[in-house]
Amino acid sequence: MKVGSIFPQTEIGSDTGAIREFAQATESLGFDFLLAFDHVLGANAETHTELTGPYRHYDAFHEPFVLFGYLAAVTSSVELATGIIILPQRQTALVAKQAAAVDVLSEGRLRLGIGVGWNYVEYEALGENWRNRGARSEEQIEVMRQLWTNELITYEGRWHKITDAGILPLPVQRPIPVWLGGASDRTVRRIVSTGDGWILTGRPDDRAKGLIDKLHSYAEEAGRDIDSIGIEGWVSASIGGPDEWSKEAEGWKALGATHVSLNTMRAGFETPEAHIDAIRRFKDATSGI
Taken in order 127, 125, 165, 195, is the CA torsion positive or negative? Predict the structure, then answer.
């Protein structure tokens, strides 16, 4: 099982030295990947009282593609993963271009996690349709894969039209792996039909087992080899200490996860050094997994 750390977006601050140090610590400690969350805009909770997601306007987020362009230059081997880019609130060809650029600059180290999101305020601000986001994301993945694997494409779908154009330079990985986040029934089916992997939130409990069992069932129904679908689970550093983190990681492995990562945000760590110490302890605790 591959082990990663989650970049502490909302708590790392804006010191480029601290950002570099966290990424380089992730690599030097032997982690397989570094994953970063995504939000373009945060909504004011006092105005948007109906939003139920966990982030607001006071939560800071470094833009993942820009962040990874920087981290590509200060690391050499650790995989860079988005977890997740809210794909339908963005222009498809532009995301394909940005992802290809990161993959080139990192020499083939990008894993693109995507999802449909929960914050309609971002969709409104970015000029994209909130209501058709799920179905549209399926076509977006198809368009991106064509752009990543061909110098020129001609494509006309329900939401996209590209006439004899391309995005040189092409990425190193052709295509870049696309993992999906989310837990709805439609999302699980979408993972089977279009995804390279699944990023699961929560804990390795009965809920997660039920979802993974559903993935197996849908894959069998579709005639897809379940081993071709990666599964990533997350461990929260707010749950106990290294012994508990190790048990959580073991729980994910028992459910069939191929990847596990530690989220150090909202665990009471007040400095970048404290976040680094936490991932160090997590790596030690999971060394035998």
Answer: negative
Helix (H, G, I), strand (E, B) or coil at 108: coil
What percentage of the chain carries pLDDT values higher than 70?
100
**The dihedral formed by the CA atoms of 138, 55, 50 and 191, expressed in degrees to the nearest 10:** 20
* 3-class secondary-structure state, position 233: strand
Q: What is the pLDDT of residue 288?
A: 85
DSSP string, 140-181: HHHHHHHHHH-SSEEEE-SS-EEEEE--SSPPSSSSPPEEEE
How far apart CA 271 and CA 278 sit, in angstroms, is 11
Q: For residues 162 and 153, is the Cβ–Cβ distance under 8 A?
A: yes
Measure the CA–CA gap between 134 and 286, rounded to whole angstroms. Answer: 35
Angstrom distance (rounded) from CA 102 to CA 24: 17
Query: Contact, 257 vs 228, CB < 8 A?
Result: no
What pLDDT is stored for residue 265 in this prediction? 97
Per-residue pLDDT tens over the stretch 92-116: 999 999 999 999 999 999 999 999 9
Beta strand spans in the chain (E): 2-6, 33-36, 79-82, 85-86, 110-115, 153-156, 161-165, 178-181, 197-200, 230-236, 259-263
- The separation between CA 198 and the C-alpha centre of its own chain, rounded to angstroms, equals 9
Going 14 to 260 to 275 to 19, the CA torsion angle's sign is negative
Please list the ranges in the chain whose pLDDT falls under 70: none
pLDDT of residue 52: 85
